[in-house]
């Protein structure tokens, strides 16, 4: 075997172990007994120690030095393995293990604090997480910018300066659009009670309508919807509310976008460095275009209106047009995952600035709730009413995902680019969506984005798929056009 062959075989086993670790995380969010949290932290730490040792093993460095890529795919394998190796060798194994244990325990503490509206119960463990992440970031940065180093885990090639400039360009137009919309009468929302078991049945129908392969996946309930796994085992979760079935419906479609990406990656990439989505920004582009540009389109909501009437009876809105307005209603709210398209990125900008300040040391954990509430009031014009609607609403910081939040906005930007290109390529798309047929849209995304897994760098992939350098302009044009029509601005 050549050095390249040995490296690929070794990487396959490492990837398989990483999938097992991911399954432990899925179980913790869905089925694990609450009393098992401390033991699960030890288990996660143990498997993280094994993974870190494999990723940083000296022989990996030796094979990388000797390996010669046979083709473009081989070169991409080496690029991604080298990136993981460079990262692993910078982070001490003991630190990786401590992070795995503390974040596993912190996740359970966060969930209990959120349920009890008790910020004080969460802050001590968050202080531990932040301290460990600062230590990890400093090791990764090797004298450079700590936050930029963290970004590379989620969006290779991105920088805080680049993202900040993009946010600065987006914010004024989003705020102006929101102000114009909120000056108009709000459309009628849904009314009534919606059986949660029926919601889950509809969620399965929608998952399959968007191409999710249930033979290689499953749908469960969790506090925070997520997608987990790759290849032949890709699982999703959603949540239900008896008064808000849209929460279930659009959380499901969103997570199907993530899962469909993983299920569509070339089978020969399975359990390899290329066998998962190339970045969280690209991943989010798939979930957001499924959820918004497809799932909230006038054509698709016309079909969905009929399915929901069949499932629940009277909904409040009396026709498909009123239902479309309800689906896309811009309204005041606190929760990022429930935010409309116009305001969603403003939630991300808040988190981006706060976590950069936390990682730099300019903001201390003890002051985080006040900083969050002050920033929210300034950005949205009203006051956070409960911690679960504020600092405690997201799981990300409890599990150490610093640098992750801005990829949600990048995903929206990438989705805007892909949507323009897809619409140009599929002039009859609305006719298909009006029948509940998403197959032409999902096939275009599969062919132009999903099948490639980690083959291309993130921005390179979006440019190849859309035919243009990624920019926030397509997203802003889409939002301004759509909501100008909806609200008669």
From TrEMBL:
Its cofactor is Zn(2+). This is Metal-dependent carboxypeptidase. One of its GO terms (biological process) is proteolysis. It catalyses: Release of a C-terminal amino acid with broad specificity, except for -Pro. Its EC number is 3.4.17.19. It comes from the Bacteria. Zn(2+) binds at residues 254, 258, 284. It comes from Sedimentitalea arenosa.
